[in-house]
Design a protein that fits this description.
The complex is a heterodimer of chains A (366) and B (302). Chain A is 66% helix and 6% strand. Chain A has helices at 2-17, 19-39, 58-69, 85-91, 104-111, 125-147, 170-200, 202-207, 213-241, 251-275, 279-297, 309-315, 319-333, 341-361; strands at 47-53, 73-79, 96-100, 117-120. In chain A, strand 1 (47-53), helix 3 (58-69) and strand 2 form a beta-alpha-beta unit. In chain B, a hairpin with a 2-residue loop joins strand 9 and strand 10. The chains are: A alpha/beta (366), B alpha/beta (302). Chains A and B meet through helix 1 and helix 8 of A and helix 2 and helix 3 of B. Chain A: InterPro entries: ABC-2_transporter_component, ABC2_TM, ABC2_TM_bact-type.
Chain lengths: 366, 302
């Protein structure tokens, strides 16, 4: 047991004394959270909008104000000549235009429904669709306030956004980033730390000691397990306090499930370290082998449901996919274990399988 | 203490044996040297003995234990110092020593008397990181770490490679002291001059053992009278001597050429020949052969 603690202490000393490792361990998560939380988001805010107002009635001005106040759009200019619109789009400064026809108010009062035109720059189709939806919503709300609901013909669905009523992107990204960081850091750190011993020749001395190779692996994994949990605390703290990420469920459960993912990642790291002999190779495999599949197959950048069947099947082997589902359930929906025991079981299975495999593959000789 | 019988090893993807039919016997309490150039197979042999490599065929045992079957029993009683500096460079001298002591289930205090002589020299630097020590100091620290659990057998793979002459001498003095405590030491080195410090040596080349004997035995077995010679133009001298066809062998040793004559040829004939070639200031002398001469001579027999 004393050997075990001496080994863990030594491992901590390595981490603390290596500024590069420290930076990777604690700098990377913070940068990524900040990047994904603030910079990289698919939300639409304050998009430049030009209004072509041909009516000049009071209600028209009201509608324009409504658009401006929505937060999604910023009215850069109100023009009165529809021919000028083309030039605005060509300049590329605006993404959408609202055209209010002549005698807008008069017609509206007569027909009890309003009639406007939305022109969007659809060179980015996703953005254009989103913008038009926002625009429609504003017009629809405006009309309801004006005439009241009962007067409208046809079906009027009442839309209610569950769990994330304000449609914030962070709620989607943060769980994704958490799983991404856990995957990267844990796999990278463990694989590099073992391969480093091989590269520097210290593995030779460790192997010739009476300390059983099995314990070398376990003692290697424990410091990184602890560091990863610490890391997780930072990320969770940042995302709740800085990015207004909701935390509806139990924090304890979140950490328990994260511990499971960390275990999977550590085993994966051990497996990589058993099959490579240089730090560089280990780093490449961990980065290339983890980063891209995690980005693609976790589901936070591209919905897995939209992928072709074969890719959907491949995504099942990514531990981060299951973890992502769990984190969303805990943090956003506040659900308990009975809603994701299946995902938990899958992660457990992965952890056991990978750990057994890496222990079996660990060479007791050079 | 160490028994090796018909040991072969061949690495994957390689045609030739890295070790070929090695037979070796090291007695208890012996300071045994394994001498040969880089790539001769010294490290492979050491790794097999340290249970780090599996031999392709043949058997080897250390301290009466089989290196394939009893690996954990061996690892408990063996002191091994790899050829490359294999301590933690980012840990201090003290931390390294404590770590390895704990790893081998002992404490520095318990076996302090064993490493005392060496550790005293390291003491002033005990807070320094191992990576910042000089080459000689590193080797002393590595030796301390290999000794700390009071092993019965010490395997030192090229402990003096890359170390300055003074430190090398100190290191061998230390090995001499350790030998007096009854410890069996097997040490490898590419430096022929270190052979005289051993009780017995084995010359190894291309994975084969050329001979095993005491240093004196090896030197005495040199079959020819040996001369050394030098002149003003050393490079030309060597070339001219080979062209003279009077010699059995000629090798450059620092500022001297060591040479052995073919049967019937004499130094007078060579001097005449060299004078004709324009050499001046020729100095020569008959000398006793060193280990290196013996090694080179045996290489010719291969």
């Amino acid at each position: 047991m004393k050997q075990f603690f001496a080994f863990i202490k030594k491992e901590f000393l390595h981490v603390i004394r290596d500024s590069k490792t420290l930076l990777m361990l604690f700098g990377l998560p913070i940068v990524q959270i900040a990047l994904f939380g603030f910079a990289l988001s698919n939300e639409v805010k304050e998009v430049n909008l030009v209004v072509c107002n041909l009516s000049n009635e009071t209600k028209a001005t009201e509608l324009i104000q409504k658009f401006d106040a929505s937060g999604n759009f910023k009215v850069v200019q109100v023009i009165h000549d529809p021919n000028a619109l083309d030039q605005w789009f060509k300049n590329g400064n605006i993404k959408m235009c609202l055209v209010i026809p002549a005698q807008f108010e008069k017609n509206a009062v007569r027909e009890r429904k309003i009639d406007v035109q939305l022109i969007a720059d659809s060179s980015d189709p996703n953005l254009a669709t989103t913008l038009v939806n926002y625009g429609n919503q504003i017009v629809f709300d405006f009309q309801m306030k004006w005439f009241g609901q009962s007067t409208l013909p046809g079906i009027n669905p009442e839309v209610h956004m569950m769990y994330n009523p304000s449609l914030k992107g962070t709620t989607n990204f943060v769980p994704g980033v958490i799983s991404l960081i856990m995957m990267l850091i844990c796999v990278l750190m463990t694989s590099v730390s073992i391969v480093k011993e091989k590269e520097l020749g210290t593995m030779e001395v460790l192997l010739v000691s009476p300390f059983h190779p099995f314990f070398i692996i376990i003692a290697k994994a424990i410091p990184y397990f602890v560091l990863s949990l610490f890391n997780l605390s930072i990320i969770v703290f940042l995302s709740i306090n800085l990015l207004d990420m909701p935390m509806e469920g139990s924090i304890l459960l979140l950490f328990a499930e994260s511990g499971l993912l960390i275990l999977v990642c550590l085993s994966l790291g051990l497996l990589i370290s058993n099959t490579t002999n240089s730090q560089q190779a280990a780093m490449l495999i961990s980065l290339l082998g983890m980063l891209i599949p995690t980005l693609i197959f976790t589901g936070f950048l591209f919905p897995i449901e939209n992928m072709p069947k074969p890719l959907q099947i491949i995504s099942n082997i990514m531990p981060s996919k299951w973890y992502y589902i769990i984190v969303k359930d805990i943090m956003i929906k506040g659900l308990g274990i009975k809603y994701f025991w299946k995902e938990t079981l899958i992660l457990m299975g992965m952890a056991i399988f990978l750990l057994a495999l890496s222990l079996k593959k660990f060479k007791i000789r050079l | 203490m160490v028994e090796v019988q018909n040991l072969h090893i061949r690495y994957k993807e390689q045609k030739d044996f890295a070790l070929h039919d090695i037979n070796l016997n090291v007695e208890k309490g012996e300071l045994f040297g394994l001498i040969g150039p880089d790539g001769a197979g010294k490290t492979s042999l050491f790794r097999i003995l340290a249970t780090l490599l599996l031999p392709t065929s043949g058997r080897a045992s250390v301290m009466g234990l089989d290196v394939v079957k009893d690996i954990y029993a061996i690892r408990r009683k063996l002191g091994y110092m790899p050829g490359r500096f294999s301590l933690y460079q980012d840990l201090s001298v003290e931390e390294n020593l404590n770590f390895f002591a704990t790893l081998f289930e002992t404490t520095v205090e318990e076996n302090y008397d064993l490493v005392k002589d060496i550790y005293i020299q390291l003491e002033p630097f005990k807070k320094r990181k191992a990576g910042q020590l000089s080459g000689g100091m590193k080797q002393k620290l590595a030796l301390c770490c290999a000794l700390i659990h009071k092993p019965e057998l010490l395997l030192l793979d090229e402990p003096t490679t890359g170390v300055d002459t003074v430190s090398r001498k100190e290191f061998w003095d230390m090995l001499g002291k350790l030998k007096k405590t009854g410890l069996t030491i097997l040490v490898s080195t590419p430096y022929m001059d270190e052979a005289s410090r051993c009780d017995r040596v084995a010359l190894i080349q291309n994975g084969k053992i050329l001979s095993v004997d005491t240093p004196k035995g090896i030197i005495d077995s040199f079959p020819y009278p040996l001369f050394q010679i030098k002149s003003k133009e050393m490079a030309k001298l060597h070339k001219d001597m080979i062209e003279s066809k009077l010699l059995h062998s000629a090798h450059i040793f620092g500022e001297w050429n060591h040479l052995v004559f073919n049967d019937g040829n004499t130094m007078e004939q060579l001097i005449d020949y060299l004078s004709l070639k324009g050499h001046t200031n020729i100095v020569w002398k008959e000398i006793a052969a060193g280990i290196e001469d013996c090694f080179i001579e045996r290489m010719r027999d291969l």
